[in-house]
Amino acid sequence: MKINDILKPTFWKVVSVIIVTMGLFSTYYRFSRGLGLTTNLHDSVPWGLWIGFDFIGVGLAAAGFTIAATVHIFHIHKYEPLVRPAILTAFLGYLVVVCLLVVDLGRPENFWHPLVMWNIHSVMFEITWCLICYTTVLILEFAPVVLEKFKIKAPIKYLKIISIPVVIAGVIFSTLHQSSFGSLYLIVPGKLHPLWYSSLLPVHFYISCIAAGLSMIIFESFLIARAFTKEDGFHHTELKMDILSGASFAVLIALIAGFLLKIYDFIGNGKLPLLTVPSTETYFFYLEILIGTLVPIFLLSYKKLIEDKKWIYLTSICVISGLILNRLNVSITGLASSSGVNYFPSFDEINITMMLVVLAIFAFRLIAKNFDVFVSNESEHSVNENGTAKSKQIILSERYE
Amino acid sequence: MLNETGILFDITLCEGCGACYDMCKEVNNLPETNDDYLKDHLSDNTFTVVEEYGEIYTRKLCMHCNEPACVSVCLVGAIKKSSTGAVVYDADKCIGCRYCMQACPHSIPRYEWGLTKPRIRKCNLCDDRVKAGKLPGCVEACPTEATIFGKMDELIEIAKKRLKSDPDKYYQHIYGLEEAGGGHVLIISPVPFEQLGYVSKLTNEPMPEFTMRAMEKIPSVAIGGGLFLSAMFWLTKRKNELAKEKKSTNGKESI
Lengths: 401, 255
Hints:
By secondary structure, chain A is an all-alpha fold. Chain A is built from 17 helices and no strands. Chain B is α+β, with helices and mostly antiparallel strands. Chain B starts with a strand and ends with a helix.
């Protein structure tokens, strides 16, 4: 790409530059003036958009471990093309989360304290360590892609040897911290609205992250196919419908499991009458269940729709919105009545969050452009199986062109 | 635990003079926050307040739980139980995650939102004074002995005796004895506590128990998950190999 091309203003470039500039100003204010002046947080609302967004970011990055497990542990190689995008998404998602956590800390200069000061009874402590370990796992999983590019072969050999234990560790760390984000709220039975409070919160969080993480990868595949074209120098970014339909089917299973668990929770704990109480919480709860669970289950149940890219795209947006609503409901809506105040994030809170999202998207594009993030369906494995696959692949790609 | 110390606050004896409020500010070097102490509320510069409910005056302060939620959730252990039973805070350890504020069943901890090096702020039951053999500021200042200091078992005894000797005067409940697992601040009152703004729907179970029930499953999830995934790895690999072998032998037969 020439300098002129980079500088050529397009709509999204202008918007991104504005968002990042505003975000940088807000970041400066946040660190120079403190949380009180730059956020709408106060004693009754100690956690706001940033913590809520951390839940969302981690939840949507869940495909990093589910896809890796599907391909490397369960040997379903059909999903191979999703592994690298999923790991990259997870890694960048976690970077955003870690940055936001540091911005949110009252004393960010002490961020390293959990490494040496331990309280093993704290869910937050467990989450911190899982985040550190899992980010390391993601680096190890993505390292071969970088090393390949620079033709540094020696470490790849060692990475291959430890790859399976690394993937297994990644799945376990993910399982633990994804569910523990729900466990954070187990200690506030009197504060969190009973529509969301449940001893099963960790399980709810875990199941919903599986559905939403996969939906995120599906959603991303559509954006990538549209934005990362051959003219821009990207390869293998075209939609692979059989993979996306298969992933959507997994989303359907996870959604049904999550919904059944919710029914079990509501009946078992006698919470059904809550559904008829007219209140803001109830409306938000219905919105969350409708958009995030019922509509997608309905759509994905039709064989015709699950094979149709438009409907899959729409469903993935629904499931992602459902997770966003759920996490914000738990972290903000569900706590509003007990705190007695309505919280809405400040200008600076929104700016910094948007800036980090834009930077993550930019980083994704930059990395995808320079490294082999997108691989063909028919690469390695099928070639190993029989030599004819290679010629078949060429025919396929010719047809796409 | 029963040798630890705490305070007993008898609402029937409180005249709402605000001496405890002033003394608390003095011993903790806190600036003035409100011209009328009865209209003040807990903040980063106010660790105890006197509230007016008609003819009744009551106090709010940290309850110094036996098994505090804030201590259990603090990931760096910045909040600890002192040997006296008080719940104390070490600002040097704190990273400012504010989980303690979120977790506290009594919503007590406050934050220095306006500062760039903020601290969690709350009553520490004058732990340094108590360790030096002095009374907590509020106890020393109270002219009517509405707030008294002592060993926990003695305080519980006194509270029970007062409820028993004058059942018409007292609502028959010692607030803080069992709420959220109990603590080191006991309160007795002429009226039910929810009328005085106390959190009344608390369980008697210590709050950290709710978390522990999930946390104790972590080792089994980690070990069980590891075994399950390893097993699935070998099984599915073997299955693929068998399928391939079958394919290749079939291929040979057809040739």
